[in-house]
Amino acid sequence: MQTVIEFIRSYPDIAELIGIIGFMIYIGGFFSVQSGFMCGNGIAFPVVQVTAASFVLVSLTTAYNLPAFMIQTSYIAIGVFGIALRLRRVRSNRYRPADPARDARLRTQIRFDTDCHEPATLFRHTSDQSDSPKSHALCP
After folding, report:
1. What confidence tens digit (pLDDT) does each residue in 123-134 have?
2. Contacts of 113 (CB under 8 A, 6+ apart)
3. What is d(CA 64, CA 70) in angstroms, rounded to the nearest whole number?
4. Cα dist from 88 to 15, 36, 84, whole Å
């Protein structure tokens, strides 16, 4: 591990580029949730957050900053916790007797959740959502 850190420190421009890529992943994930492309309750969002935090953490090897380090390690820890909870929930439901409705819910939980409501449709009356292209239930 020490040799990897020394290698990254010997190329500070590459470490900075990795940090910028992490920033872009953060912003892309946040935009995806806000625009309805990705569900914030699904497994994709914590995976994106852990990936972005890991990339930014790599960039901190050349320009250490304690508060930034604390933020990134917290994002990684909380994201891994969230991923584990989601996978455990899916796995615990796998060994129950066949139930088509439950199986359909599980399929929506494990995929990259592209069918969340758009923010504007969350507050409409139910009858107003009939013409909405995304008139189904909120994120799993």
Report:
1. 333 444 444 444
2. 38, 39, 41, 42, 43, 44, 139, 140
3. 11
4. 34, 25, 6
Q: Which residue has the tokens 């190329």?
A: 11
- Whether 43 contacts 113, CB under 8 Å: yes
pLDDT in tens, 24-76: 999 999 999 999 999 888 899 999 999 999 999 999 999 899 999 999 999 99
Question: What whole-number distance in Å separates Cα of residue 32 and Cα of residue 39?
Answer: 8
Please report the sign of the dihedral spanned by the C-alpha atoms of residue 67, residue 69, residue 71, residue 77: negative
- Chain position carrying tokens 């799993």: 140
Say if residues 52 and 45 touch (Cβ distance below 8 Å). Answer: no
Burial class of 22 by CB neighbour count within 10 A (0 to 12, 13 to 18, 19+): buried
